[in-house]
Amino acid sequence: MTFGLIAERTGRRAVKRRDTVEIRPVPEDVAQHLEVEVGTDSLVVINNYWDQHGEPTEFAIDYHGRERGLSIERDFPES
């Protein structure tokens, strides 16, 4: 579900996000989808989002397969 749809249907807006990046072994239920052996190291991104009341709105764990990069872009505030 997109953030806009969540806000539209529930009135809850995502206002805070935390991304954690780790290297983890691929579990059995994920390995076949990534076409790797169980236990192969994988880049893992864990996403947490909270609404304007501090309540969680979304949690996800994404295992990244080979040849999939991670790009982060941010604007720096003007001083």
* Fold-level CATH name of the domain at 14-64: Chorismate lyase
Contiguous uncertain segments of 5+ residues? none
Percentage beta strand: 35-45%
What is the percent of helical residues?
10-25%
Verbal overview:
The protein has 79 residues and is of the alpha+beta class. The chain has a domain at 14-64: Chorismate lyase. 19% of the residues lie in helices and 41% in strands. The chain has helices at 3-10, 28-34; strands at residues 14-25, 41-51, 56-64. A three-stranded antiparallel β-sheet has the order 1-2-3, with no helix packed on it. Strand 2 and strand 3 (56-64) form a beta hairpin. The protein is extended, with a radius of gyration of 16 Å.
Please name the defining characteristics of this protein.
79 residues; alpha+beta; Chorismate lyase; three-stranded antiparallel beta sheet; 2 helices; 3 strands; 19% helix
What's the gist of this structure?
With 79 residues, the chain is α+β, with helices and mostly antiparallel strands.
Give a topology summary.
Layout: H1 3-10, E1 14-25, H2 28-34, E2 41-51, E3 56-64
Antiparallel strand pairs: 1-2, 2-3
